[in-house]
Design brief:
The chain has 225 residues and is an alpha+beta fold. It is built from ten helices and six strands; from the N terminus they run H-H-H-E-E-E-H-H-E-H-H-H-H-E-E-H. The strands form two sheets. Strands 1-2-3-4 form a four-stranded mixed sheet, sandwiched between helices. It has a two-stranded antiparallel ribbon with strand order 5-6. Helix 3 packs across helix 7 and helix 8 packs across helix 9. 19% of the residues are buried.
Length: 225
């Protein structure tokens, strides 16, 4: 069985191998005791792996300056940003300007569709069960949302593949039969792909009734086929 030490070392090395310049340097010097303690006491007991977790993840603040979050989970879908905050650094040693900058940064990140959650170092070190309980609550919401996103992604992928297989314009009835869904849901899938530019509707004469949906060049080149 893989130990935490082995998994964590492989996790960090994998990210080091994929980074260059300041991003690599930041990981080498910025992934410190608090971040490792979070990984060991909170994330590893809760998840048992480091899949989709990114240490020292670079984002830009509202001034366009680089900022390195302690962790970001699944930035492609979840965009959950995790910080471990020590009392001294973030409370006793913080002046008014730093305080304003931190609040502005968190507001900006929220505007960029990140959800920022923070854990106190003392809780990570001495009360990890509380952190695990709270993080589980947050992740349960993100993971259920991710499953819906993944279902839509794979449905789109399969529709494009099926349209390519048919080698003719696709109809809602084709999708309804193929996926065993009702006509309205099938039309919804096809309209979503039209909004993406992967399909285009074909109308009857001068009317507004759509009979077929044709695969576009963008759909063919989308990487889904």
């Amino acid at each position: 069985m893989v130990t935490f030490e082995e998994a964590h070392a492989a996790f960090i090395q994998d990210h080091l191998n994929r980074r260059i310049g300041e991003r690599r340097s930041r990981l080498e010097r910025g992934h410190g005791h608090g971040e490792i303690l979070f990984a060991e006491n909170i994330w590893w007991p809760l998840k048992g792996n480091f899949d989709d977790l990114h240490p020292e993840y670079e984002v830009l603040d509202w001034r366009g300056r680089p900022y390195f979050a302690d962790y970001v989970f699944d930035p492609r879908l979840s965009r959950l940003l995790i910080e471990i905050k020590g009392f001294g650094e973030h409370v006793t040693n913080m002046d008014r300007k730093k305080y304003c900058n931190e609040l502005n940064r968190e507001t900006f990140l929220a505007g960029m569709r990140f959800q920022v959650i923070s854990f106190a170092y003392d809780d990570v070190a001495h009360r990890p069960e509380t952190c695990i309980y709270l993080l589980r609550m947050v992740l349960s919401r993100f993971e259920s949302a991710n499953k819906q996103v993944e279902r839509i992604f794979f449905a789109d992928q399969e529709i494009i593949r099926y349209a390519t297989f048919l080698a003719r314009p696709i109809r809602p009835v084709d999708i309804a039969k193929y996926f065993t869904i009702n006509h309205r849901t099938a039309v919804g899938h096809l309209k979503r792909l039209c909004q993406k530019g992967w399909l285009k509707p074909i109308h009857r004469g001068t009317g507004q009734r759509i009979l077929y949906y044709e695969l576009t060049r963008q759909g063919m080149d989308s990487g889904l086929v």
